[in-house]
Amino acid sequence: MAILFTHIKELLQTRPQSEVKVMGTAMADLPHIKNAFLRIQGDEILDFGPMADVVIQETDEVVDVTGKLILPAWCDSHSHVVYAGDRSQEFVDRLKGLSYEAIAARGGGILNSAETLQNTCEDSLYTQSMERVKALIQLGTGALEIKSGYGLSTEAELKMLCVIKKIKETAPLKVKATFLGAHAIPKLYKDNKKDYIDLIINQMLPEIDRQKLADFVDVFCEKNYFSLEDTERILEAAAQYNLVPKIHVNQFNAFGGVGLGVKHKALSVDHLEVVTDKDLKDLKNTNTMPVALPGCSFFLGIPYTPVRKLMDSGMPVALASDFNPGSAPSGNMNFVVSLACIKMNMTPEEAINAATLNGAYAMDISDTHGSITKGKKANLIITKNMTSFRQIPYHFANNPIHKVMINGTFVD
Ligand code: NIG
Ligand code: FE
After folding, report:
1. Which CATH number fits domain 2-72+371-410: 2.30.40.10, 3.30.450.20, 3.40.140.10, 3.30.70.270?
2. DSSP letter assigned to residue 120
3. Most buried among 48, 181, 196, 316, by the most CB within 10 A?
4. How confident is the model at residue 113 (pLDDT cuts 50, 70, 90)?
């Protein structure tokens, strides 16, 4: 039995298998077919084309989607969706005038989330996190990277990574796990950061490798967190376990994190709210994907990543949610795409490229996800009736989704 979608108003992001990312001026083009068909067999895309070419077969279950668009499900390459409790009190403190940095300096922020998580059992952490993941799938996310980093002890980091593994095994969407032990310096090591980095290198990494709990490694390379030297030590140690870096850089300060990421062949460098000419030079003509997180800029009121500058220099850009309890408590990629257009002047074509194929690249899954390509996973967004894909970012904070399909199955 195959599922055959007919009369698709616009079938978006149709690409050959050979295209693994979209760069520079090419991001302005979103290949699509008007009045199209799309055939799904099992969990894969079997065939697609203009309605004029469709041949309906006996084995087809026909779904007429007149008036609706179909695009690949969102590929969200940066999230911290596994966390315990929330930080709504800190949110209110910020509204009253305290800065994100000031809240962190008084022992709140990431350390606050770490304390809550350490006191939460694995089952409860899984239940809380899975509820969020299910909501994200309804909002069209079909692939999701999830970081650890709210544990900050060997036991709690492993607990987080075990929960991510369980989500990988039980949620229908594609999940990639990132070890972010170097997210903040835990209270216990306040005056002895070196010992904490030793713990990451000598205890956490070997155990994570033994249990095969991570696909990538991340470090929050930032003032008052981890320096270039700290970051390099951790990336070098992680390389021995074949963990490719995806790192937090240039959120508040630019001091060479981008170049360091490129040197260590990072799959992505994420945040980039501050970008220098040197960063642009370091990133150009590399395989490292710059990832912008406009939800974080929106929520914290910090600058937005200068994505136009990156694209005008010929580079690709990916968009991700950064879903986390402190700086971006939403994983809604429809809103992220809107923000990218409204606040960073991306065109709808650029934003959709950034949130699908380039997001997949930033998770190393663009061979199977991120575009409408024969043989790729049938991870699809079927939109409500609309005149064109431009309406997705235009109607900001609206839900554009009629139905979501993950691996060839409709999500309830
Ligand atoms: O990507 N910047 C570091 N990490 C997260 C925020 C974590 C938090 O505030 O809990 C981010 O914005
Ligand atoms: Fe983050």
Report:
1. 2.30.40.10
2. S
3. 181
4. very high
pLDDT value for 1: 85
Q: CATH 2.30.40.10 occupies which residues in the chain?
A: 2-72+371-410
326 lines ligand 1 (CB under 6 A): yes
Q: Relative to the CA of 110, which ligand 1 atom is closest?
A: 10
3-class secondary structure, 151: coil
Contact 297, 319 (CB under 8 A): no
Q: What is the pLDDT of residues 359-412, one digit of tens each?
A: 999 999 999 999 999 999 999 999 999 999 999 999 999 999 999 999 999 998
Ligand 1 mutation target, pool 220, 246, 271, most atoms within 8 A of CB:
220
220 lines ligand 1 (CB under 6 A): yes
Boundaries of CATH 3.20.20.140 in the chain? 75-361
Q: Is 272 near ligand 1, meaning CB less than 6 Å away?
A: no
Dihedral (C-alpha) 188, 190, 191, 192: value to the nearest 10 degrees? 70
> Phi/psi of residue 140, each to 5°?
100, 5
For the domain made up of 75-361, give the CATH fold.
Answer: TIM Barrel (3.20.20)
- Pairing mode, if any, of strands 244-249 and 216-221? parallel
pLDDT of residue 53: 98
pLDDT tens digits, one per residue of 61-75: 999 999 999 999 999
The two three-digit tokens of residue 279, written as one number = 């960063």
Distance separating alpha carbons of residues 26 and 350, to the nearest angstrom: 9
Query: How many A from CA of 404 to the centre of ligand 2?
Result: 26
Testing ligand 1's pocket by substitution, the residue of 183, 221, 223, 270 carrying the most ligand atoms inside 8 A of its CB is: 183
Measure 37 CA to ligand 1 centroid, in angstroms.
42
Is pTM beyond 0.85 here?
A: yes
49: tokens are: 């084309």
Ligand nearest to the CA of 268: 2
Distance of CA 323 from the midpoint of ligand 2 (Å): 7
Q: How far is the CA of 78 from the centre of ligand 2 (A)?
A: 6
Question: Which pair of tokens denotes residue 148?
Answer: 């650890």
> How many angstroms separate the CA atoms of 46 and 41, rounded?
6
The 10s digit of each residue's pLDDT in 343-362 is 999 999 999 999 999 999 99
